[in-house]
Amino acid sequence: RERYRRAVERSVPEVATAIADAISGGRSVRGALAGASSSLEGPAAVELARLAAELELGASTGEALGAMRRRLRSARVDALVAALLSQQGAGGDLAGLMRRLAAAAAERDRVDDEARTATTQARFTGLLVVALPAGATVFAELLEPGFVSQVLTEPAAAAMLIMAAGLQLFGFAAIRRLGRPAE
Hints:
The protein has helices at about 1-10, 10-25, 30-35, 40-55, 60-70, 75-90, 95-145, 145-155, 155-180. By secondary structure, the chain is an all-alpha fold. Helix 4 (about 40-55) packs antiparallel against helix 5 (about 60-70). It is rod-shaped.
């Protein structure tokens, strides 16, 4: 369900462009919503086809858009629906608004992708930093068999190693948490 919602969110630029194209072609808002699904693919096409079916069964535009909004629970879909409903009531250049919304949504997707790439690199670097002491321990054991067991027989050394391992795990968890972009 979450993947489906994200796929629809990622398609908001295409949805807004399809609606703008239909409105520019002379269709009403209802007609644009009904016809937009034919130019789309995937979950966005499914959602707009469902919306078109609700409109055809007699639901008002506001009711059908509200149902889609409740189904998806997405801030990006909420923005699309709010733009459609506000322009329906207030009037104005809906096609232009849809094109601006599409451009803004596409820019947001690009920025999110860049942030995800940068944080992925940071998480990988954190993983390497955490793995270095374990790799050094294995290397020391290979050079001098029994080294680790000698170190672990000393209570102070064993305590320090356990504390260091705990701090490494804590650091790794912090890096993963801080390196995850907000949704």
